[in-house]
Design brief:
- With 369 residues, this protein is α/β, with parallel strands linked by helices.
- It has helices at residues 18-33, 50-54, 72-88, 99-107, 121-124, 134-137, 149-159, 175-178, 207-216, 229-236, 255-259, 287-295, 305-308, 324-336, 338-351, 357-366, and strands at residues 5-8, 38-41, 62-64, 93-96, 111-116, 142-146, 166-168, 194-198, 221-225, 244-246, 264-267, 274-275, 278-279, 298-302, 317-319.
- It has 16 helices and 15 strands.
- Strands 3-2-1-4-5-6-7 form a 7-stranded parallel beta sheet, sandwiched between helices. Strands 10-9-8-11-14-15 form a 6-stranded parallel beta sheet, with helices on both faces. Strands 12-13 form a two-stranded antiparallel ribbon.
- Strand 4 (93-96), helix 4 and strand 5 (111-116) form a beta-alpha-beta unit.
- The longest helix is centred in the first third of the chain and has 17 residues, at 72-88.
Length: 369
């Protein structure tokens, strides 16, 4: 059977959201391995190409179906239209993060891979009960994926799902994007390091911790990509020291070159991370984590269980998410033990090979017999 895939996202692409990056990258991966791949979304700037914003390599059609009413019924109607569009284009596999789309695809006899990144209740309201419908959950055309082991454990505990019905597939990175830059020599035994933070300006993402680390470590420069000083002051309620430099937002396609210009990359996630009213701190599989690994730079990350699913002391430095002094100690360890630091960075670069977007897309398609 030829696998013709539609990726359906109830999202705007392109846009400034992290979700849109995920959609663009996984769509590009599917386009490289699937015949006649199509992407279906509900909005985004039709004039801006995914190539110029995200650096995608493959050409594929993007269909935009306007969202209807902002209600559960409106979501279901939109999902029906999206599944119809996929079916009319000859697609026999639908990949989606929208449970309604997966449900309707299975009803229509189309294989559906549901890729969950959080609690289904935040996507469906009371329709979360679909996970108790045996005809749906145990259907051979339904394939459930979670972004982390922590999220899989949550579904087993809270929704009484069987272990063998859930596949864990972490997020990934586009390794080809980093190839031209990741070979840059890593030199960290110097007086002042450039320490990069990439992400939203949120306390849950660790911007307040960055502020405290920068105060405790006045020798190094902290380069912030993803927002402005004004946003950071508003979010934290504090001024930032002069060694924190805000560079604003940059196009996703430009990020690999910038990351590889850093000496150290930091992922200061907190155990509580709110996203659209949901605490995803226990579940998140940050895109930046895998991009950091691909960059060949030293990584310091919060010592959280979900981060330890990917990182360890073999390929990164892990520090208490609430203790800035531990982070400063890690920075000093990198500076004064540069050979050991370079070995960890190289190990991360090797380990990330199994976390490419193409590998994730292939793993999803392998679920469909």
């Amino acid at each position: 059977m030829k696998k013709r895939v539609a990726y359906i996202a109830r999202a705007s692409v392109p846009s400034g959201s992290t979700n849109s990056i995920h959609v663009a990258k996984i769509a590009d991966a599917f386009a490289s391995i699937s015949e006649d791949f199509i992407l279906i979304v509900h909005g985004g700037d039709a004039e801006a190409t995914l190539r110029e914003i995200y650096g995608v390599r493959n050409d594929f059609p993007v269909y935009r179906i306007k969202p209807g009413r902002n209600s559960r019924i409106g979501q279901i109607i939109w999902a029906m239209k999206a599944v119809n569009k996929a079916g009319n284009n000859g697609c026999n596999i639908i990949v989606t993060r929208d449970p309604f789309t997966a449900l309707i695809a299975v009803i229509r006899g189309i294989d559906a891979v549901l890729d969950l990144h959080g609690d289904i209740k935040h996507l469906t309201g009371r329709f979360y009960r679909m996970l108790s419908w045996k005809w749906f959950v145990d259907n051979s055309r339904f394939h459930l994926v979670t972004i982390s082991q922590g999220l899989k454990d949550y579904y087993i505990e809270n929704y009484d799902l069987n272990d063998d019905r859930i596949t864990v597939l972490a997020d990934g990175a586009d390794l080809d994007d980093f190839m031209p830059f990741a070979g840059k020599e890593l030199i960290v035994n110097k007086d002042s390091l450039h320490i990069g933070y990439f992400g939203k300006i949120l306390v849950g993402k660790g911007i307040e911790l960055v502020r405290r680390v920068a105060i405790a470590d006045g020798n190094d420069i902290f380069d912030i990509y993803g927002g402005t000083l004004e946003e950071a002051i508003k979010e934290t309620g504090h001024e930032f020291p002069s060694n924190v430099i805000f560079h604003g937002r940059v196009n996703n396609k430009d990020i690999p070159a910038i990351m590889c210009d850093m000496d150290v990359l930091i992922l200061p996630n907190q155990d509580k991370l709110m996203n659209m009213g949901e605490d995803i701190g226990r579940f998140t599989s940050p895109l930046k984590l895998f991009e950091y690994m691909a960059s060949g730079r030293c990584i310091i990350a919060s010592d959280l269980p979900v981060i330890r699913e990917v990182l360890s002391e073999a390929n990164a430095y892990l520090a208490n998410a609430n203790d800035e002094n531990e982070w400063v100690k890690c920075i000093d360890d990198i500076r004064f033990h540069s050979d050991a630091a370079a070995k960890r960075a190289m190990q991360a670069k090797l380990d990330v090979q199994k976390y490419s977007w193409k590998a994730r897309a292939n793993a999803m398609l392998e679920l469909v017999k």
